[in-house]
Structure formats: structure tokens, C-alpha cells
Amino acid sequence: MSKFHNSHTDKLNVPSRLLKPLLFRGRESLEKNGIVYDPIAAIACQRCSLAKDCLSGNVSQKQLLHSTLTFSIDQQICRFLSHHPTAWIINVGAGLDTRFFRVDNGRCHWVELDANENLIWRKKLFHSSERYFYRKGGLKNLDWLDDLSIPDQSPVMFICENALLECDRAEVARFVQGMARRFEQAYACLVMAGDLTQSKVGKAMGSEYYVHGYSDISKEMLRVLPWAKKVSVISPFDQHCHRWAVWQRMIRLFSSLKYRLTPIIVQLRW
Fold first, then answer.
1. Distances (CA, A) of 141 to 117, 144, 154, 178, 196
2. In this structure, how many other beta carbons lie within 10 angstroms of the beta carbon of residue 9?
3. For the chain, does the N or the C end have fewer beta carbons within 10 angstroms?
4. Sign of CA dihedral 158, 163, 164, 165
5. 3-state class of 92 per DSSP?
6. Rounded CA gap, 140 and 175, in Å?
7. pLDDT per position as a tens digit, 166-181
8. Residues pairing with 132 in the sheet
9. CB 66 within 8 A of CB 25
10. What are the tens digits of pLDDT across the range 187-226?
């Protein structure tokens, strides 16, 4: 379990865009047979004031979508660390993510990277450690890539769960190419949005507004990174969960929509 701040001061007015993912994981931890168990998120939420928009709309479905993506990324990182136990994980646009505390194997190195104002909120809720670092940096300016002090030949994995959803397609392409130029070999696990997330069905599945949208993410990533050794995608509908059952039956009838109605996970290796 993580070390986190325990002071019983007035509740923190954390921006809702940072707090909502934390809130969804905390709520999911209280569900019977929840997809994600994150008691650290639940405790941290108790120290924060909830804005009205945190609980607006179809909260249960949004929570299910977020938790499913979160769990799937956790799985991919655990598999990566099982093969590369001392790897470096770079969490871009970390926000108030608590993933390190869920998947830490005791040997990996982890960098939480975000804008300075977001790191300030993180420091109020969580502590860093000798293998767990905070670094200032964002997706608009990639100068931080050259400042990463990572030993040569160390396995590296980039993760980005929410931040890329606030970027347009040109910014996504620049980020992906920037990673590949900085590291000759690396892995990435990134959440990007399908092009039908703003449809009535997409919103009913828990999707919100995202800046970009792709009809064929695999094809687009190969165009952006033609030397990629592997591009694969994971949909929330791949998760075995009875709460997705109705939507999974629909997707079986309209399989072409599987990767277009929600954010999905894109895995890259180059």
C-alpha cells in the first residue's frame, strides 16, 4: 500500500478533470466484484471536495468504462514487468493516477510526468520514493524526453491513460514520433478515442467528449510510426464482465464498431 498524506485539514478543491478518474476508481473499489480495487483512491477522495460535474450524467457507465480501461492497462504493465522486472515506466499525464501502488513489483522505476500544477495536487495526496519520481512535462512540449535520465539498454514502457484524449490528431502523432525518436526501442500503452464516441450509443456506453477520434487506429498508428514492430488494440468489450454483457451482444452483431464507440487501448512496440 502507498504512503499518502493523512492530515485532517480542510478538503482539497481538486479540479474535477483530475478528480473524476480518482473518484471512479474509488467507487469501483466498493462494488461487489469490482473490476479495479483501489483503496488508495477511495481514501484520497475523502480528502477532496466533489464538484457537481464529478457526478453528472451516467456515472455508473462512465465508471465502468474508466475502470475497464484502467484494469486492462494494469494487466499489460504487469505482463511487461514479468519479463522486464527492473524496467522504467513513464506515466505521461499522470494526473492523480495510483497505478504504481497497484502494480509495483518492488524493482521497477516509475516516473509520474505531468504539468507542474497537476503535480502540486499529486504531492498533496501522495509521496514519492527512491524508485518513484515526479517530473514536470506535458504533451504539448516534448523537451522533457531529452531530460529523462534512464540508463542505456533499460527496458522502457510509456503509458498514457487520459491525457491523449485531450489532444488532436496532430499532437498525438507528434507525441508518438517523439517517443520513438528518443528511444530506439520501447513499448507504449496509450488510450485513444474512436470516431463515434460522440454518437448516442457511444455516450450511452460511457464515452465523453474527446478532442480526437479514429475510425481505424491501428492503420493510423502505422502511418504515424511505419517502423513499428507491433501495433495492437484492446477494447473495453474484450473484458469479461457481466456489466458489459448487453453491449457485448450488440458489438457481436456490429463488429465493425468495436473500436469506434469508446476510448480503446493502443499498444505499440518499436
1. 15, 8, 24, 10, 28
2. 8
3. N
4. positive
5. strand
6. 8
7. 999 999 999 999 999 9
8. 110, 129
9. yes
10. 999 999 999 999 999 999 999 999 999 999 999 999 999 9
Instruction: Say if strands 187-193 and 263-269 run parallel, antiparallel, or are unpaired.
Output: antiparallel
Cβ-count burial of 176 within 10 angstroms (0-12 exposed, 13-18 middle, 19+ buried)?
A: buried
Q: Return d(Cα 85, Cα 256) in angstroms, integer.
A: 37
SS3 content of the chain, % helix, strand, coil (to 5): 45, 15, 40
Which residues have C-beta within 8 Å of that of residue 59, sequence separation ≥ 6? 27
User: What's the pTM?
Assistant: 0.92
Residue 9 binned pLDDT confidence (cut-offs 50, 70, 90): low
The amino acid at 268: L
Residues 6+ apart with CB under 8 A from 76: 189, 234, 265, 267
Residues linked to residue 231 through DSSP beta bridges, in sequence order: 268
b vs e for 243-268, b when ≥16 Cβ sit within 10 Å of the residue's Cβ? bbeebbeebeeeeebbbbbbbbbbbb
Query: How many whole angstroms separate alpha carbon 75 and alpha carbon 31?
Result: 20
Q: By three-state DSSP, how is residue 134 classified?
A: strand
Identify each DSSP E strand in 80-229 by its residue range: 88-92, 109-114, 132-136, 156-160, 187-193
- The predicted pLDDT at position 129 comes to 79
